[in-house]
Structure formats: C-alpha cells, structure tokens
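FAQ: What does the model actually see?

It sees only this:
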Amino acid sequence: MNVPAQTKTRSETSEGRVARWGLALADWSEKWFPDALVFAFLGVVVVFVIALLTGEQAGNVATQAGKNFWTLVPFTMQMAMVIIGGYIIASTPLVRRAIGKLAAMPSTPRGAIAMVALCATLTSLLSWGFSGIFCCFLTRELTKRMPGLDYRACGAASYLGTGSVWAMGLSSSAAMLMATRSSMPASLYEISGLIPLSQTLLLWQSIVTTLIVIASTVTVAYLSAPSAANARTAESYGISFAEPTAEKEVRTRPGEWLEFSPVLNVLVAAMLVWYLVGVFRTSERGALAALDLNTYNLIFMTAALLLHWRPKSFLKSVADAIPATGGVLIQFPFYAMIFGIITGTGLSEKIAHMFVSISSHETYGLLAAAYSAVLGLFIPSGGSKWIIEAPYVLQAAIAHQVHMGWVVQIYNIAEALPNLINPFWMLPLLGILKLRARDLVGYTALQLAVNAPIVFFLCWVFARSMPFVPPVK
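And it is asked to produce this:
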C-alpha cells in the first residue's frame, strides 16, 4: 500500500539518523542500482576497458574472456546445490520447527533484524554457505510472524556474514591453504613456506578484529532498521510464503511402492554417512577444516534424505527449489569472463606490481586491505583470488618486514567488503527471498560505509605493531 507523501515525510522524521540513512540508501538503490545480470555485464565492459588502457590488445582480451566463459561451471553447480540443499532441508518438518522457535524470540522488527544479522555473522564463521541459506529461511519465517518487518533490511541482514567475517573462520580458503603443504602451489611455498592457523585465524588480533566487525555489523543492522510506518514488507512486494501442505500418501500403481518407502533413502544415506565419517577422520587439516563446499553440500543432501524419509517427499522438495537457481546458472559464466580477463592478460600482475612499488612498512596494511577489496569487485572468489594475489602481497610483506600471517588475515577481512555491493554472492539468497539485488544493496551499502573504515584501520594498526616472522619451510 502506498503511503501519502505528507504522511511518509512526517513518519520518516521520527526515525533515528542511521535509520534515515538506511531508508535513503534503500530508496536510491531501488531506483538506480542495476539488476545483477546488468551488473555482471557492466563488470565485463569495465574490466575490458581497463585492460586496454594498460596496453593489452583487444583481441587477446576478448579471447581470454571467451576462453574462460565456462571456467566457473563446477563452482556454479556447487552454488546451485547450496540453494537446493538449503531448500530441501528447510522444507522438512524438523527444521521448520527449529526455525519457527528462533523466529518467535524477537518481539520487535528492529530486534528481529539484529538477530538475523547476529545469526548470519556467527554462522558464517562455520560455513558461509550455511549462513546465507539458514538466515534466508529465518527471514522468511519472520515475515509471517512480525508485522511491520522491513523485508529489505531483514533480507540484507541474512547476507551480512558473507559481507563481513566469513573468511575469518573455518570457511577461510586462504588460511587453510597456507597451513597445508599439499594444497599450496610450489611457487607460493617457496615464497612464504607454511603459515599455521596459529599465525592466522587464531591470532588474538584476528579474534579481536572479528569481534569488532561483528559488533559493528549487528549494531548498524539494529540502528538502520526502519519502524513499521516506513517498512517495506514482503506483502508490499507481492511476496507470501505459504506453509507447505502435508502430502497424502496416495498410491495408484504397484510400481509406486518404492517412492513411498524409506528403504532406499536410508540405504543411500547410510553409504554417504560412511563416506563423510572417513572424510572428517582422515582430513590433514583436522575434522572441522574438512568442511569445504562439496562436503557441506553432501552433508545437506544426506540429512535431507533422512529427514524427508521417502523419495517422493525428497523429489518434490527438489522440484520446488529449482526455480531459485536460475540467477546462478545464467550469471556466473559472465563473472568467469571477468576472471579470465584479469588473470589471462596479466592485468592482475600489473596492478600488483604497482601496489608493491608504492607500499612501505608503515602503509602496507592499509594498501593491502584496499587492494584486496578493490580486486574483489572483479574477482568475487575467495580461494582463486588468493592464488592470484598471494605471490605479490607476500613478497611485499617480506620486503617490508610485515607479519605474513596477518597479511593472510588482511586479505580475509578486506576481501569480504566488496561482497556488500557485488551481487555475485547475493544470487543464491535472491532466489530464495524472491528479491532483486537492488532491494538489498541500500542496506548492505550502509554496512560497507561503516565497516570499511573500521577494517582498514585495524589492518593498518596491527600490521605496524606485529613482529615479522620469517618463512618456515
């Protein structure tokens, strides 16, 4: 329902300052921020032009873009399975009851949004994939229970783990890679040697940084949540989430007996459980470190088989989930073009050498954070982006006598910042929430404006004060 102009202006003046900023940015992004696909196209064009300005030949740039179009196909499938796995788990009666109990806890829309932000940041330390999916379904449940809940702000809150601290926990590809000899490229090992987790994720500086950013993120989410008078509810978008109806077991043919029997679900799940136990028991990096994206997806699928109990129920849930994967399937190849231009033409190397030449011990932390954040706009992939960045930033760290473990953490905390305005990582959530990137970016951009100075300052201060540790080989 549209609010008359005078009433809207009068009610907005009663909001706090941060809430007014959030409303203003949300209104701006809904008008001006492009669709996620258009953002991807713009990224391709911008990176293409930058490559030409640095002296690359147009033909070579186009070749690298096209050659890498399918590079992210395995990752695309992983992300599609994140969505499907989240859907089929959340559609089970057991998980619906758990989410319902959590959704019943807050008493105000502002408290609900802060709770989602806290859940998003904390769960992202375990798995960024789980964080987004779980919080999306929590947001959906809250919309059914909480009148006056701003759907944009709550949807943005469910994404905040991916835009803040996810890489400071067990999801960190960079920290896990640097601690595992068998995972490191030989050329990178020659530069840095091993960097154990005690020198990255478990540094007290890392823990303090993580806690500060979580506190800042939750506080901004709480203060920026608008009152019911100014809220854009799910209903205002024409979105409703009806409770799934119980399925009646109607068998019309003898051959359908197995579709309604739990026998096959149990047998297949038992084999997968056997495999997963072996994965965690034999992991070189420890049991929790084995929780990569493939393992995470397989755990969800195994749990879904058992929780749905029957093939018929499992298959119906999968069919309901498929429409939410459309954005991921069509857009990730265009981000792969950006990745191909940057890595295939030497553009990344040129930028990195410029970074090394202008940095010093005093400025390294700030410049490394800024460099990682900017590059993250164009290569939205934590693990592969670190492989590109690591040789240059670690060589510069040795030259400037900067703690190399903290360099990894600078990368981890700074490279999450561009996720707040890059729709790439939003795509799985957008399908579940039935929103567009422009609906969330206003509130995530406010988080970026607050958190970026905090992150840059902490990266700079700790880089200057921590003693240099020589490479261990």
